[in-house]
Amino acid sequence: MYRTIELMPFGVLRAKGRSKVWQTSLSIPYLGGDFQLVIHGDVNGPSASQRMALTLLTSPSEALRDEIATKVVEFIHACNIVPVEFKVEVATVWSLLTPELIEVHTSHEYAYGEGELGTNAISIGYLTPWTNEQLIQVPFLNGKIGVIYSE
Predict the structure, then answer these.
(1) Are 112 and 147 in contact (CB under 8 A)?
(2) Distance between CA atoms of residues 8 and 94, nearest Å
(3) What letter does residue 30 receive in the DSSP assignment?
């Protein structure tokens, strides 16, 4: 049995049984398109701080898009993980990133570290054409981009 709540502007969120994990799909065109959204909230839905963090992320920002592109390219080059047939540059990186998952955490902590105390970390995950086994993760921490990582 699923429970649903409508949360504008994110749409209808679903949770199974008494789960605190809420899910839906979410389109963020400036970040590449459609994502699966997972929010680790409470039994009544996402917290006010989670909603605020997600609202900040969904507000179109060319500066944020450019920063993500630059940091993702730096990460990819530093890891030396791209087959030679792919040319990864800031101008082309968005064509190589497939939106997969946005995860809104319960606190400022996430898999690779933590953001400011009292905020909610968000992980933005992208698939790439050279692997379907790991996502490139872009942490969104109180309006800023953290250290890019893969998991």
Answers:
(1) yes
(2) 27
(3) G
Token representation of residue 150: 């893969």
Q: Which amino acid is at 66?
A: D
Residue 91: the pLDDT is: 93
Asked whether the whole model's pTM tops 0.85, one would answer yes
The predicted-structure confidence for 15-26, as pLDDT tens digits, reads as follows 998 899 999 999
Task: Compute the chain's Rg from CA coordinates.
Answer: 16
106-117: per-residue pLDDT in tens?
A: 877 776 666 666
Burial level of 143, CB count in 10 A (0-12/13-18/19+)?
Answer: middle
What is the residue-wise DSSP string for 94-144? HHH-EEEEEEE-SSSEETTEE-STTS-EEEEEEEETTEEEEEEEEEEETTE
